[in-house]
Amino acid sequence: MRATTDPIKGRRMLTMAEAADLYNVSQATIYRRIKDGTLTAHRPGPNTVRIDPRNLRTAFERRSAA
């Protein structure tokens, strides 16, 4: 897994593909979670999306508990 580091916060950030692989879901599922507000994403560039693993964990734990 090749995660990038958020230069401002110093955290490891995941790409959409890495986030999808981590939870064994499609990238479309990750995108839907971002779009519906369940998952927060950072957009450092116009075509770049990065996800904090802690937000990913929270989004999928909350989803499975419901």
3D structure, described in words:
- By secondary structure, this protein is of the alpha+beta class.
- The chain has a single domain, classed as Multidrug-efflux Transporter Regulator, Chain: A, Domain 2.
- It is 44% helix and 20% strand.
- The protein has three helices and four strands.
- The protein has helices at 16-22, 27-35, 53-65, and strands spanning 4-5, 12-13, 41-45, 48-51.
- The strands form two sheets. Strands 1-2 form a two-stranded antiparallel sheet. Strands 3-4 form a two-stranded antiparallel sheet.
- Helix 1 (16-22) packs across helix 2.
- The longest helix has 13 residues, at 53-65.
- It is globular and about 30 Å long.
Give the helix/strand layout.
Elements: E1 4-5, E2 12-13, H1 16-22, H2 27-35, E3 41-45, E4 48-51, H3 53-65
Antiparallel strand pairs: 1-2, 3-4
Helix pairs in contact: 1-2
CATH topology name = Multidrug-efflux Transporter Regulator, Chain: A, Domain 2
How large, in whole angstroms, is the Cα Rg? 11 Å
Question: What top-tier CATH class fits best?
Answer: Mainly Alpha
Question: What kind of sheet is the major sheet?
Answer: 2 strands, antiparallel
The outline comes out as globular
Could you tell me the strand content as a percent range? 15-25%
Separate helix tally: 3
Assign a percent range to the helix content. 40-55%
Question: In terms of per-residue confidence, which ranges show pLDDT below 50 for 5 or more consecutive residues?
Answer: none
The ordered H/E elements are EEHHEEH
Count of all domains: 1
Beta strands, count: 4
Helix-and-strand structural type: alpha+beta
